[in-house]
């Protein structure tokens, strides 16, 4: 029997869940509790990339099962300049010289994660559809995401949801395909 997927905007109380899932989305599996708590502190703020204000929680039968962090690209640079100095352990000090991940005129899907035990149940697609709804609500014409071209599972998920490749962006010495819809 299929479970019920519901979505809700995150609250400050979700900061630890946000932190854990942002790390999961970034494939950082070795984070200790102090790193998770540090990122949770960043998630409790209003002005960071990984803020609770930019986050949507997916529930599966009432249980937190996934996370999406998405926002107006016009706010990216300001939030990046606040966030990256706080997470130097992951991004280093040369973040100002890297390509921007997004810009004005784009609604950017920064992070998407579904807990392993809830994968392949439609949760990621539900979060992506919510991102399109938020984009439309904000009156922004374009949705974008960066995807590792070697991550076939993610690539298939995004193209199945209507994203198409439009260029590449190099971030932290890794080249990603830029997908848009």
Describe the structure.
By secondary structure, the chain is an alpha+beta fold. The chain has one domain: Aminopeptidase, CATH 3.40.630.30. The protein is 34% helix and 28% strand. It contains 6 helices and 7 strands. A 7-stranded mixed beta sheet has the order 1-2-3-4-5-7-6, with helices on both faces. Helix 1 packs across helix 2. The chain is globular. It starts with a strand and ends with a strand. 35% of the residues are buried. The mean pLDDT is 93.
Could you write a compact summary of the structure shown?
The protein is α+β, with helices and mostly antiparallel strands and 181 residues long. It has helices at residues 15-25, 33-43, 76-86, 88-91, 123-138, 152-160, and strands at residues 5-9, 55-60, 63-72, 106-114, 142-147, 164-171, 174-180.
Order of strands, main sheet, comes to 1-2-3-4-5-7-6
Cα Rg: 15 Å
Order of helices and strands: EHHEEHHEHEHEE
What characteristic shape results from the CA principal axes?
A: globular
The CATH topology assignment is Aminopeptidase
Give the count of helical stretches.
6
CATH H-level name... which superfamily? Gcn5-related N-acetyltransferase (GNAT)
The domain tally reads 1
Task: Provide the helix percentage.
Answer: 25-40%
Q: Mean pLDDT across all residues, rounded?
A: 93
| CATH architecture annotation | 3-Layer(aba) Sandwich
Number of strands: 7
């Amino acid at each position: 029997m299929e479970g019920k997927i519901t979505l809700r905007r995150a609250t400050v109380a979700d900061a630890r869940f946000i932190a854990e899932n942002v790390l999961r989305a970034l494939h950082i599996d070795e984070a200790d509790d102090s790193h998770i708590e540090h990122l949770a502190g960043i998630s409790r703020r209003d002005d960071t990339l990984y803020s609770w204000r930019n986050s949507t929680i997916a529930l599966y039968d009432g249980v937190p099962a996934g996370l999406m962090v998405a926002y107006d690209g016009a706010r990216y640079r300001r939030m990046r300049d606040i966030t990256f100095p706080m997470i130097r352990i992951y991004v280093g000090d040369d973040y100002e010289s890297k390509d921007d991940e997004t810009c004005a005129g784009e609604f950017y899907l920064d992070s998407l994660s579904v807990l392993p035990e809830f994968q392949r149940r439609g949760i990621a697609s539900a979060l992506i559809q919510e991102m399109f709804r938020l984009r439309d609500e904000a009156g922004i014409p374009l949705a974008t995401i960066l995807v590792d071209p070697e991550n076939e599972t993610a690539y298939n998920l995004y193209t199945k949801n209507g994203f198409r490749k439009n260029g590449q962006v190099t971030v932290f010495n890794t080249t990603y395909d830029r997908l848009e819809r």
